[in-house]
Amino acid sequence: MAEIILESTLTCPLCGHVKTETMPTDACQWFYECEGCHALLKPKPGDCCVFCSYGTVPCPPIQDQRGCCAKS
User: Fold this and answer.
1) What is the spatial distance between Cα 33 and Cα 61, in angstroms, rounded to a whole number?
2) Which is higher by pLDDT, 10 or 72?
3) How far is Cα 29 from Cα 59, in angstroms, rounded to an integer?
4) Contacts for 61-66 with beta carbons within 8 Å, 24 or more apart?
């Protein structure tokens, strides 16, 4: 079993602001406010959370191949 990475670096698609955040292990993060331009980021179609859309590392449930809580 591979180790789950809990930190991911998010990049805002609007202003390019970059910040490393710790991902929640028990829930998907559907919204994220960019500290640079204050845009409210939402997952891209087909992604379960902002980390899967804009981060360097997918969320813990996807890493663990459990699927994400946003998908049924």
Assistant:
1) 22
2) 10
3) 9
4) 61/28, 63/2, 63/4, 63/5, 64/4
Q: How far apart are CA 70 and CA 53, in angstroms?
A: 13
**Model pTM score:** 0.84
Element at 52 (helix H, strand E): helix 50-54
Q: Where are the domains of the chain?
A: 7-63
Is 23 or 1 the better-scoring residue by pLDDT?
23
Residue written as token pair 């980390």: 51
Residue 64: pLDDT band with limits 50, 70, 90 = confident
Q: Is 71's pLDDT higher than 90? A: no
Which residues, other chains included, contact 66 with Cβ-Cβ below 8 Å and sequence gap of 6+?
Answer: none
